[in-house]
Amino acid sequence: MRGIREAFPILHQSVNGKPLVYLDNAATTQKPRAVIDALVHYYERDNSNVHRGLHALSMRATDGYEGARARVARFIGAADPCEILFTRGTTESVNLVAQTWGRANLRPGDVVLATEMEHHGNLVPWQELARASGATLRLVPLLGENGEGGLDLAALDSLLTPQVKLFAFTHVSNTLGTINPAAQLCAKARAVGALTLVDAAQSAGHQPIDVQAMGCDFLAISGHKMCGPTGIGALYGRRELLEKLVPYETGGGMVATVSYDGATWKPTPERFEAGTPNIAGAIGLAAACDYLDSVGREHIAAHCHELGRIAYERLSELPGIRLLGPAAGAERSGIVSFALADVHAHDVVTFADEDGLALRGGHHCNQPLMHKLGLTSTTRASFALYNTAGEIDTLVASLRRIQKFFAGQ
Ligand code: PMP
């Protein structure tokens, strides 16, 4: 897409004497000038604490912060800004639901359903919640020896019993590149009375999201994976659900009245945001929403899916490669994971770095999934709006060089 790379200052550098090819976007995306400028502007002109001040800077900071909440609401199609809670990111958003809704509502005999492709951030909180509450965690199985078949929807139907109180699933797998049919999964869960939590860490920055059309009850996002700053993210929750929840973090900012004997809480969203929030982060996240929408998320989605498709096809030409996730021709995101026979993923990433490539090697916070697929690690190339098909040429050439080197050992 034209004019995009110019907006990202970090991309215009050399690494090890080669032009940087940044293909580690599933870990974190780069930031456009507009987001960097929004942060600088905030700290240079508006920095102040929110909600508690009557002076000009405090009012500007409050307007910026609350404006950011409304912007994020609009970005994901929420009906009301009070349905957006600012968090540190997807992990904290999931933990918030587990610690508030989960602790209040789960009993022995209840079931939380997740899937075999969950990131640790949408798995471990449910394991811990199940341990603490006596509820059971069940997982929807994944089909195919390389996970190419996606979630087993027939198995899902039999797992979705009235005992299921929550179905938590990822929208896009950070390892396989699978795009789950979120609206369909939410509808199935709703039919048995279960709530849904969608982990949108890997989708929010790359494709349009509309929580009302999707029909989810909770949705979690991370700012840093959608061209925004680190340390900021959001939890969307349907208003009537959030209003019933008791906060798990207490302190300043979230209280209506306090006496030496106790306290009462402000309405949602404030009562879930104890202490001074990440004001600059929220403002930077709103700038990221503006930027992504100025490019157009439909365009970004089409571009990233096309790069994922090309990468999958080109990589499948390499000898001894094992590619994970949806097969050639199937719909996939811009995330492609693979294992090279006889070369450890850490060696691939280290050698590729010599060619200026930023890849990721490891279990990608998907240890049980790796185990299921009989792997300990993979190499992952993940694309964003600023990547080009020419960078896939660099990737393939680098991998050929690596294979040649290791074949000679
Ligand atoms: N879920 C998925 C699918 C992810 O890819 C990630 C980040 N790798 C997370 C959750 C956790 O996000 P964060 O580290 O920003 O909390």
UniProtKB/TrEMBL annotation:
Keyword presence, Transferase: yes
Any single Pfam family the record assigns to this protein: Aminotran_5
Cofactor(s) needed for function: pyridoxal 5'-phosphate
UniProt record similarity statement: Belongs to the class-V pyridoxal-phosphate-dependent aminotransferase family. Csd subfamily.
Enzyme class: transferase
UniProt EC number: 2.8.1.7
Record-level Gene Ontology MF annotations: cysteine desulfurase activity; pyridoxal phosphate binding
Keyword S-adenosyl-L-methionine attributed: no
InterPro entries: Aminotrans_V_dom, Aminotrans_V_PyrdxlP_BS, Cys_dSase_SufS, PyrdxlP-dep_Trfase, PyrdxlP-dep_Trfase_major, PyrdxlP-dep_Trfase_small
BP GO annotations: cysteine metabolic process
Catalytic reactions on record: (sulfur carrier)-H + L-cysteine = (sulfur carrier)-SH + L-alanine
Gene3D superfamilies: Aspartate Aminotransferase, domain 1 (3.90.1150.10), Type I PLP-dependent aspartate aminotransferase-like (Major domain) (3.40.640.10)
Role noted for this protein: Catalyzes the removal of elemental sulfur and selenium atoms from L-cysteine, L-cystine, L-selenocysteine, and L-selenocystine to produce L-alanine.
Domain called Aminotransferase class V: residue spans: 21-395
Protein name: Cysteine desulfurase
Keywords: Pyridoxal phosphate, Transferase
Taxonomic source organism: Cephaloticoccus capnophilus
